[in-house]
Amino acid sequence: MSRIETLDARTVELLARFRTGAVPALARAISVVEGQRPGFQALLHEVMASGPQARRIGFTGPPGAGKSSLVAAAATTYRVRDEHVGVVAVDPTSPYSGGALLGDRIRMNDVATDPGIFIRSMATRGSLGGLATTTKEVVDLMDGFGFARILIETVGVGQTELEITAAADTVVVVLVPESGDAIQAMKAGLMEIADVFVVNKADRPGSARLVKELRQALHLRAGSALKDIPAHHGVDLGRALKRERTTDSAAQEVEDWPVPVLTTNALTNEGVDDLVDAVERHRSWLVESGQLEERRRDRAEGRVRDVVNRELQRITWSSDEVRRLLGEGVLGIAGGEETPYSVARRITDALLR
Ligand SMILES: Nc1nc2c(ncn2[C@@H]2O[C@H](COP(=O)(O)OP(=O)(O)OP(=O)(O)O)[C@@H](O)[C@H]2O)c(=O)[nH]1
Ligand SMILES: [Mg+2]
């Protein structure tokens, strides 16, 4: 694979250590990427050269549903099965507390010294969609580093966690009896994004009813009664709908994935083995049905768009001419001779010249 730019000496050295599997080099690479420091794109390019290998599993759901507890329990299960796990937890506020907490919850003797597990918590810093701006890049780094399973916890913010479909191969939606009924889940677009439903806090009253409702709702949906009803206006279900369309039109040799509804108690680990098994089964289905390839293509397209958007923004706002046009334009708007549209047009024309 070609280089996108000449690597500086520090990046070369970092890459070399990264490739030997030195955990501090992974941590350092993540800082470089999160800080978008010079050379971060070249670094990612090198790390991603061998393509995605890891199984990427997203956990989403309303605040307090038990996502972190379940991620910790699932990570523990994977370690017991001798799989290496990377965990990325997106925390709405602090970049550190969430990760530390998650580490505490992972019932392993030595999370700190076990090289088979790596936990990173990221702040969202106001980014929408339930992921931080660089979450996907950090997942790529963990993938390139060699973690076979990567668990991604999104912030539970209601409607906007749907971005997880763009980051994960398998999406686990975690609900609890307190988070409302199946109708609410449908309205929130969760039926479209869930590959596995988990009703956590199965020790609480109401969980059996929620399981039943969810199964009925999934059954209805499979019967296509609700197929043309948009899940929720304003929610971008682009990929989810596309996924459905292709499933409809293509002559399917592999059966549709029957979305399981499982129950767990993340505090006692009850049901967690079954959850991990379901995730692994979904993986096999993804491979056999060709959906994995399709999801990866969609993801690759999204990533190219993201990178182009980011580069265009950077190029735009770091240009002296643009800054000059913007400064003059703002005065023009204040004076009534210009509008934001005329100024923006002048700027884009200048950039395209
Ligand atoms: N009774 C019971 N409590 C649980 C269970 N799972 C998690 N909890 C508790 O529920 C609370 C929230 O759990 P978290 O794992 O932090 O939930 P979360 O979805 O990650 O929360 P946010 O990231 O803040 O949205 C904690 O006090 C957990 O101990 C469960 O299965 N049963
Ligand atoms: Mg959490």
Which key terms come to mind for this protein?
about 350 residues; alpha/beta; seven-stranded parallel sheet; about 10% strand; binds guanosine-5'-triphosphate; binds magnesium ion
- Beta-strand share of residues: 5-15%
> What is the average of the pLDDT values?
84
The CATH superfamily label of the largest domain reads: P-loop containing nucleotide triphosphate hydrolases
Please give the share of residues in helix: 40-55%
The class by helix and strand makeup works out as alpha/beta
Structure description:
The chain has 353 residues and is an alpha/beta fold. It has helices spanning 9-19, 23-34, 40-47, 67-80, 97-105, 135-145, 182-187, 190-193, 207-222, 238-249, 272-289, 291-317, 320-334, 340-352; strands spanning 55-60, 85-91, 117-123, 149-153, 170-175, 196-199, 261-263. The chain folds into three domains: 1-49, no CATH class; 51-289, P-loop containing nucleotide triphosphate hydrolases (Rossmann fold), CATH 3.40.50.300; 319-352. The chain contains 14 helices and seven strands. It has a seven-stranded parallel sheet, with helices on both faces. Strand 2 (85-91), helix 5 (97-105) and strand 3 (117-123) form a beta-alpha-beta unit. Residues 94-99 and 229-251 have low confidence and may be disordered. The structure holds guanosine-5'-triphosphate (GTP) and magnesium ion. Guanosine-5'-triphosphate (GTP) binds next to helix 4.
What's the topology here?
Blueprint: H1 9-19, H2 23-34, H3 40-47, E1 55-60, H4 67-80, E2 85-91, H5 97-105, E3 117-123, H6 135-145, E4 149-153, E5 170-175, H7 182-187, H8 190-193, E6 196-199, H9 207-222, H10 238-249, E7 261-263, H11 272-289, H12 291-317, H13 320-334, H14 340-352
Parallel strand pairs: 1-4, 1-5, 2-3, 2-4, 5-6, 6-7
Helix pairs in contact: 1-2, 2-6, 4-11, 13-14
The structure holds guanosine-5'-triphosphate and magnesium ion (MG).
Guanosine-5'-triphosphate binds next to helix 4.
